[in-house]
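Posting this for the archive.
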Amino acid sequence: MKKIKISPSILSADFSQLGNEIKRLCSAGADMIHVDVMDGHFVPNLTIGPPVIKALKKSSSIPFDVHLMISPVHKYIESYANAGADIITIHPEATDDINDSIDKIRSLKKKVGVSLNPETKVEIIEKNLNKIDLILIMSVNPGFGGQKFMPEVLSKIKELVEIRNNKKLNFEIEIDGGINFDNAKDAVAAGANILVSGTTIFKSNNGNIKKNIDLLRSV
């Protein structure tokens, strides 16, 4: 079984102290930093852009897991790569040609992630899986933190595990949306090996982020 990795979402961090929050996450044993980028168009919210990511990267000793919820995404890939993204995750619905966008990320020597919304089928990216490093399964509708976990997406994780085994592929499976200490067990049992969590990591146990990261990793 693959090691369970924890990717805390800074969407739930103290935005007035983001640099320090990232240092805290690194010290607490996080495996990567999950950065949600929203444009107010593809999803109904606005967050941060490349200049902020570039500044925050200086505070991090671990990879930046950058989830681009922006459309059209293709023309912005290079900006986020240059800003310090180590993994760039895009949505198939946000690009005119998912294969071209995957190749663009790979050409910039970054890891390729593709995110599937709750209603998006695995088939949409099945033929591209040999070029993808990470599949991000959304267990909420993207756009806002603090939403309730949708257990129906777990079947999609199981489907991806079966495809990966049958085709002898090596992509990782990440899940994001309403992850807590209870449903994390179900996500891991289904086959996810990267857990994105914001509220649970920053708010549970009186904000003891090291304890919360350790608890999530040991589910």
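The chain has one domain: 5-217. The chain has a mean pLDDT of 95.
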